[in-house]
Amino acid sequence: MYKKSNITTTLIIVESPAKCKKIEEYLGPTYKCVATFGHLRELKSLKDIDIQNDYKPTYSLYEDERKAKNIKNLRIAIHKAEEVILATDDDREGEAIAWHICQVFDLPIETTKRIIFHEITESAIINAVSHPRNINMNIVHSQQARQILDIIVGFQITPTLWSAISKNNKTGLSAGRCQTPALRIIYDNYLEIKESPGTKIYNTFGYFTNHCLKFEFNKNFENEEEVKMFLNKSSFFEHIYTVSQPKKMLKNPPQPLTTSRIQQLANNEMRISPKETMKNCQTLYEAGYITYMRTDSSKYCDEFIDSAKEYIEKKYNDKRYINPDIDSLSNCIKEGVQKNETDEKSSSQTQTKEAHEAIRPTNINLTEISEKATSKEKKLYKIIWERTIESCMSSAEVFQITANISSPYPDGKYAFSSELMDFPGWKIVSQKNIKDSGKNEKEFNYLKTIKENIIVPYKNITSSLTLKDLKHHYSEAKLVQMLEEKGIGRPSTFSMIVDKIQEREYVKKEDIVGKEIECIDFSLEERNITRIITKRTFGNEKNKLVIQPLGILVIEFLIKNFDNIFAYEYTKQMEDELDIISKGEKIWHNLCDLCYKEIDNSIKDTGDGLKKKEIKIDNEHSYIIGKNGPVIKCVKTNVDGNKVTFKPVKKDIDIHKLENGGYTLDEIIDKSNLFIILGDYQEEQLTLRKGKYGLYATWGEKTKNLSCFGNRPMENICFEDIKEILDKECNDNICKNNNETNEHAQDFGQEKPKNTTNIIRQVSNNISIRSGRYGDYIFYKTPKMKKPMFLKIGGFKGDYKKCHNDLIEQWVKDEYGVL
Fold it and tell me: Which domains does the chain carry?
């Protein structure tokens, strides 16, 4: 039994350990805070779901050592505490984790207190502790349905991908409930780009007035003849200047930050991915600088609105800077206080989504954060602070005028617009806006000084060739926007979805080199028309998401066979149904059953005759997806039968052009990275490669120099040739290791091994698990060590015969300080 402390303690359980110090500081010595480090239990596969029994899940504790150790520590802390309060995140996953804690540690679900807070500040934490609630089982069921739906989609459909394309051990081909529709968005964008190569047109600009202002012509020309005709007429034409009366316009403040908006803003302004944005936001949240960063809400709490009003009035000494509709930003939810059940049922879906606040600083008076923060954290905080204060301010008021200049064509005119800032409103926050308004004011006042209906001579008129309607690849920010618009996933999953399709290598973030076009431009100056020949590149793009051949093959197969499952509307409907379940208005397992049966019918329709995708290049070569990605499969027939080898393929292959026979073999083989995959050796892919110093073989993490083959062509070396060399070297090494073991094993209490059968498992080049007289042990030896080390394995938590090698390596490093 654990010995209890004399001090009465209340245990607060959160998800992240970074919150604990501040929470303990705010609540005092009678409170202790510990973390779950995320989920405690998992569903490993479809076998863990009892489909016939209303999809009842059977959870397993995570088996890795760190999780096991943390669960042990949690159990001790819970046993010592007088009271346990669950403070996991206020979302579906957080509610489920709270429920799992009760299940694992036998806490009563009906009476165990559950609190929520959206910022780590003293007032928020104390307020939350003062207003606990119970675990909301409707939200837990919504999370269970979400998790089971993901498993149903993944575990039922993914095997068909393996049958039709490849198992692809490198990245693991898979289908996903939200992952696949996200890939489909990128695929649709790819098709749009292919179908819209752009249309050649001429843009025309005229430079007029003493300030040589650039006026834009409102018509485009389609060819050189039209341009030359226009410029000829313009050379003698009397251009008449007119200007509109100043028109007052309002420029509304930006909206408060949701998860989607901060990911897009950070991607556009800081060039960081949604995943990195969320990581930095998490750090800012845990440090108490900002509110919870996973939210759909565009509202603020009343307390913050009051503090924002006070800050704005004090900072700018004018109440006009406060948004007159600022109270409409209120979410009317006090921190820690929950709506009653009647209110929840009567609230709309939008209100349910907006249980959180928008992302904002916890203290509006804090314009800069600690010097200890990273540069990215500081910049991100500045973006959040500026956007928040701007959203609470009044609209900017400007006067706009447009100057027009006539042309030889009655329906054609030149235009130049300028604005004069009358009241800056929210734009006063950014210095950039102030600088821009200064430049605009000069142009505005200058245009007003020019008399109307006078003739203004042109300085220069230029018509330049460009590409119109050229489609662009999506950035990560744009993909997040599209996910939100189509209702795919939720704020907490956007960054993970974007990351997952890249991790699978369906999509890569790349710079796109545009197409260079010879352009013939025309310039009119002093009645002389000059023809200018130049080259310009159109379509250059930076850091855009580009679908890869593997991604195209995957999505086209899934659309062909499971279009209904991965349709945007179906995915959105699933998300909406999960929201309905979270409100207690639908039985969770009915949704799982609907999805399961629909997928089951689609799988039956595909039939049993799925064949692996091979794109034939010629009689001996075809393009396939191998274990490590796309390769060229070479099948040659000799006296011994068919000899199959594999060659590397270039990365920028147009898969549709390939399917249509648009490439020769030489055009697609990557000769800069020449290798031939020969087969499997010691359960690893054996590859023959050619490097700077000649031929060598690789399998797993091992390499072997093959200089013994001299200048022999790679095509003339077969699997058996290399296997013979490797087997001989392996036998030599075994003899050497056994001799070393014989010399030192008795120091460890082991008998001298007579052969290699005492090796239970080869963990890495330096580590193996072996059996001895007194049980199993770890044999550790690096190439630099003269003698091996014999290490006890008894302290390893887990099945060292079956678990992943990484867990054993990490344990050896932590336990013995080696590696």
Answer: 10-135 (3.40.50.140), 199-252+396-468 (2.70.20.10), 259-391 (1.10.290.10), 615-726 (no CATH), 738-816 (no CATH)
